[in-house]
Structure formats: structure tokens, C-alpha cells
Amino acid sequence: MAASLAGKTFFITGGASGMGLATKLAAVTDSVDVSYRSRILTQPVDVADRGAIKSFLEGTKRHFGRVDGIANIAGIGGRLIGTHPIWEIPTAEYDLVMDANARSVFNTLAEGLVPGFMETPGSIVNVGSMYSVRGFKNAAPYCGSKHAMIGLTKTAAIEAGEGGIRVNALLPGCVDTPLLRATFERFDEEPNQNTPIPRYGEPQEIANVIAYLLSSESSFVTGAVWNVDGGANA
């Protein structure tokens, strides 16, 4: 896979820890330029601010001369996930989660898919959750935001295909990240106990699939939803 990634530049949100960090490190290992100074350009960005995303994307292209792909990995569970039913969710909580998990993806797609901005062929990977295709008690904003990501992915794939850009979604299961550990401290039992592969996934296992979807080795894959969840949604 290194050959199909080498010399390319990728824009990654959520690259500070967990799956985003693993993806960034995998890319660097394969001699890739990653915007997330020399070969790595790092910057804190409010992903819910379309203007900030536009500015960082344009800055990435100026710095490296090109953008070949995007991985949208940033996301949050919210402050009330697992504790409040939908009728008790304040509008501010809903907005917070939707901004981080859905508006962020919209913003990156809207700016990254402007004709002529990305190199072609190019690829975008949007990282959701196993709850992108199922419900979860007391997690309405989170599930709603992750379901929205799939609709954005499929629509963008249809609209961008003729322009040479592929767009896919990856749905991780329970992956051993700081976000997951902090979230499930609120619950009495770990949700992965009944999965066919009875363990947490490792960030690198998710990063490997993201790298594949970003690479030319997946050149006929677009509009697809990849479950990488140890069988949780089997």
C-alpha cells in the first residue's frame, strides 16, 4: 500500500489521539505528507466552523502544493451520552454533538469537493460509528449525528464521482481510544462483550482500513459503508 500513498498529501481531522493519530502515523510511515511543519502540518481547528475548515484546507494546499485525500475522524460523544433520554436532551447538547460529528463532515465535504481543489483521482473517508446504522439508548444526538454522516457520504459520492473523487464511510466498533474509555466509564458493562471478536479494536486496525480507502488500491470503491467493528453489526 505504501506505493499507492507515497508522495500524496492528506488532510486529517481528529489527528491528536486515537484513530486519527494512528492514521496520521500510518500515513507518515508510508512517506505521505499529512496536514493535521516539514511533512506534518498541525493546527487546532474548529471543525464546526466552515470558514476555519476552508482556511486550513487552503493553507494545506499552499504548504504542500496539493491535497489528495481527506479523512474526517474528529468526533465527540457529547456531555450527556448514556444518561438522558431524547425528551430530556437540551437543544444546546444536540447542537454541540451535531456540530462536531455532522456539520464538521459537511463543512469538509463542501470545501474539499469544490471542483479543482483536490487532486484526481482523490478519496475522502468519513469515520462514523457502529451507531451510524443502529440506535443506542440515551444517545439520540450521537446516533443522529452519525446517521447523518452516512447520508452526507452517499450523496457526496454520487455528486463527486464524475469529478474523480471517491467518498466512503467507515464505521468502527468499540476501539480502545481515550474517547471510548471516557464515555463508557458511565456504563455498568462494556458494550463489546457479545461481539463475535470479543475485544476492543486497536486504533491501528481502523487506520489500516482508512489508509486502504484513501489509497488507489480501492479505486472502484465509492459510496460504500465499511463496518470495522469486530462483528458488532453482523
Automatic annotation (TrEMBL):
Presence of keyword Nucleotide-binding: no
Listed SUPFAM superfamilies: NAD(P)-binding Rossmann-fold domains
Keywords (A to Z) from UniProt: NADP, Oxidoreductase
GO molecular function, one term: oxidoreductase activity
Pfam families: adh_short_C2
Family classification: Belongs to the short-chain dehydrogenases/reductases (SDR) family.
Protein name: Oxidoreductase
